[in-house]
Amino acid sequence: MTLILEGVLPEGFLERTKDRGMVVKSWEPQVVVLKKESVGGFVTLCGWNSVLEAVVAGVPMIAWPLHAEQHMNMNVLAMDMEMAITVEQRDEEDGFVSGGGVGEMRKMGS
């Protein structure tokens, strides 16, 4: 099954953004994307493979763990390695987070 991007993106999106961004039209390995100069940070659920790829790429992370070992990985990243900041959940039930982490990540990426 081939996904036609024009069918899922807002009308004219590719044309409007062609000079200031990039849309990858086929699958590309995450580590390749993370190594691009324009990537300033990575919001991650803290799965170990994604964490390793972000560390190799040198990209600061916002850690948003959901299950299992992701919480332990977040603690190592944020507290021990200081390569990530954590998100603050506004409400335990709805899982939404505050926007405070974005400013912190901008500082890390500078």
Automatic annotation (TrEMBL):
Single GO term (MF): UDP-glucosyltransferase activity
Database matches in Pfam families: UDPGT
The entry's keywords: Glycosyltransferase, Transferase
Cross-referenced InterPro entries: UDP-glycosyltransf_plant (IPR050481), UDP_glucos_trans (IPR002213)
Superkingdom classification of source: Eukaryota
PANTHER family to which the protein is assigned, alphabetical: GLYCOSYLTRANSFERASE
Listed name of the protein: UDP-glycosyltransferases domain-containing protein
Taxonomic classification: Eukaryota, Viridiplantae, Streptophyta, Embryophyta, Tracheophyta
